[in-house]
Amino acid sequence: ETIERNAKALALIGPTGVGKTTTIAKLAARSAIKDKAKVAMITIDTYRIAAVEQLKVYAKIIGVPVEVVQTPEELTRALKKHNAMDRIFIDTIGQSQKDLEQMQELKSFFNHRDDVQINLVLSATTKNKDMMNIIENFGQVPFNAIVFSKIDESSDFGTLYNGLLWTKRPISYFTTGQNVPDDIEAGSCERVADLLLQQLVTQ
Description:
The chain is α/β, with parallel strands linked by helices. The protein has helices spanning 20-34, 49-62, 72-81, 100-110, 128-138, 158-167, 189-202; strands spanning 9-13, 39-43, 66-68, 87-91, 117-123, 145-149, 171-175, 184-186.
């Protein structure tokens, strides 16, 4: 299965601490600075004020507009407002996969929304059992692809292979550090195979 990395609107979903906001900033910065694209950012992470402020700081540095939305209707309006943009990146609340109420709220933003490509962000440092649980619960939101974050922080890449098996989705990106916009690369199954081989060699 292939992934359209240049879809106009891209949203990142996933549990807390996997690096969604930093990844959004990397994608926005790379599009705006390197690709010279017209970019906007939207956040629906209104539970964590610090996360909203962090995204606003990134937006100011990159020189792109950012919208804060609190309802699905506001998301629709924000997408229409920035329809002339080349790329729109949407940050979402980091939440526990066990919080069913928040999961339903997240799902409501993307119900019947085929104009947004949704990516589930999974940390390469996540244990197998936890990753399976995350994938199962976030599967309530119809995500199109996965992002593996924190490749640089892991030494066990079997979870990446298992994540591919469980999601049956393509990989859109890997993140390999905190530097914006540099520490991100296009995802591929070949890269996962290379990481697994490296792990076997160093064991």
